[in-house]
Amino acid sequence: MLRKFHSCFGLMATLLVVILAITGAVLSVNPFLERIQTQAMGASSVSIAELAGKLAVSHPGAQQIQRTASGSIIVYFSDNNQTGADLINPVTGATIAAYSASPITMWFKNLHRSFLLDIPGRIAVGIAAFMMLLLTFTGAFMLAKQLGGWGHILRPIQGSLKQRLHSQVGRLAVLGLILSASTGLYMSAATFELIPEYQSAEPAFPEQVKGGVPSSIDSLAALKDIPLTELRELVYPYPGDQYDFYSITTNQGRGFVDQATGELLSYQAYGNKQKVYEFIYMLHSGEGLWWLGLLLGLSALAVPLMSWTGIQIWWRRKRSSITIDNNSTAKNADTVILVGSESNSTWGFAKAFHDALNTAGYLVHTTSMNSFTSNLTNSCANTQRLFILTATYGDGDAPASASQFLTQLEAMTEIPTFPVAVLGFGDQQFPEFCQYAKDVEAALTAKSWSQLLPLETINRQSSQEFSRWGNAVGKALDIELSLVHTPTQPRCTTLALVERVDYGAEVNAPTAVLRFKPANGRDLEHFEAGDLVGILAPGSKTPRFYSLASASKDGVLEICVRHHPDGLCSSFLCGLAVGDSIEAFIQLNPSFRPASGKAPIVLIGAGTGIGPLVGFIRHNTAHHPIHLYWGGRCPQSDFLYEDELNTYLKDKRLTELNAVFSRIDERAYVQDKIAVDSEELRGLIEQGAQVLICGGRNMADSVMAALDDVIEPLGMDVQTLKAQGRYREDVYS
Ligand SMILES: Cc1cc2nc3c(=O)[nH]c(=O)nc-3n(C[C@H](O)[C@H](O)[C@H](O)COP(=O)(O)O)c2cc1C
After folding, report:
1. pTM across the whole model
2. Does the beta carbon of 730 lie inside 6 Å of ligand 1?
3. What is the ipTM for the molecules in this complex?
4. Is 458 in the pocket of ligand 1 (CB under 6 A)?
5. Is pLDDT at 592 greater than 90 in this prediction?
């Protein structure tokens, strides 16, 4: 719901909000520039009378003196019936330059205040400020939810590059945007007098002016009493009219000064409402608070970036949205499928399940988990079974379309008699694998809801695991149920092999490092080391995923492949000669990356697991401490990337290389080396190190056990590290 709202308002308001933000950012620089200018002139402690006295000599036709919030002094004058304005040095009273408001600044101001459209434009600006505020709040709530609550709002953000950019930039800019939008909204409301009487009354018009001979301005007592820093505006009396007076506006109020006696004829201090308005104006414009202006300007620059990434995220989601055909109503259906999904792939599985049940003669109603209501018993009068298919997001949390489910379930007092089966979709890379599905299962059990099948989980949208679950459902329903669903793969690109380096034939571990470039000569689409490439072997519809050892900025797509004699894809890849081509697509794997920051990184792998790890080291141009533990068979035969790793050691991209081998006299596996180095590793963990592991499942399990022993004296285990996002695996069986 929140996301729909956010996307909908975002799309509607993009243009207006982006114009407001860019013009706001441009204008925010002015107070800073003025500040530099006035700072250069030094501090002024003169009174208004003193400066006006100097101006009486240099500008005998002075009509008005203005002091801007940033401290610039402008004098408006008339000379031989010609009017002009000069910028004045407040300390010396000397003219700095002729003054005229910059037409570019004026244009930006008008665009910012009214989209150059007068009253209708001002209304649109008010609406845009409101939209901006709504978008900022809904975005912040969505992010808090995605990260597991407000307490975890500073956690590392996962997702695709665009999702991370959108959320990260939003997180940095949120306070600035809330301040800009809410103060802007207040000022719009004031413009349209929705805030009553925010401007204080004018001072009483002086009834009795003595009309004596005007005194020299530097002798007027009222002007002597007010420091120049308090001045906003001094308007001179009409020349030759002895009954006219000076009007003065200061930071505290407004008044009139007798030009003969120098007496303050009447004075009106600002009321609280005006003070509030002026304070809010200062917060919005940064005038008089240049540093805040710059911060707000920077936050505003986040808006175009977030609009661009937001539209792309929305479009990607829209493209992958799925329509369910023959969806029976909840009332008629004998089978209900509830779906919990964030980026729609679970809907694809639900559709396949829905269609298969329809074909088998069932009346099926498929809907989102949030549409489930606590009066389910009434709305599903004919329901005989319920299936819940749900993904997990954040740190084991509900996906968007299931966010209300557990609350609604909790509110149920009467539990239906039909049984339920839960199927969880997740990714074993995440510490809380399918945790939300597990929470749903636990909540159903706590409510004593009868079970049709025990909870099953699907890792990384595996078609095989889904099909196996289909067999189990078929058995429970006593029907033949064949579930075939391969999530739509992104469009493949043809890549040509440009280089291969072979290792390991002598130790029965034939392995090749393969480097590809697009066959059409174009640039590679964006990816980073640690992302995955899906490769379709000829004749196969099921992709095999390999971890990428390069980033697209390297200009090649590099993988490290071990040849398994029975492996269709590895045989195909290891049989390629330079010039041969493959069909491949990129799947992002944003959770498997070294964290930003200065904490050390411990990379652990064996065999081809070196691939992404070597990619991380290659891009460590900032020279963060990286310690590599890697296991092979024999240094003479399968020491993958040996030359590169030695180069990285020399140029400090790699801090320490621990390579161990299992087919030599001092045979060892990585877990053995970890045990030997336990003291050093403990120290690294104490410094906040992140551990990234890549390779086979058995190696990863042994490493986990060894690390548990290493960090036990710290009162920690690997689960603690996982929960802190400091232990990440990219593991294959
Ligand atoms: C930002 C993010 C966080 C995720 N968190 C988890 C998690 O904590 N546990 C898990 O098992 N899977 C997690 N996943 C994996 C998704 O549950 C999995 O890819 C699922 O198939 C996505 O389904 P959907 O496309 O229907 O949303 C996460 C994925 C992303 C992008």
Report:
1. 0.59
2. no
3. 0.99
4. no
5. no
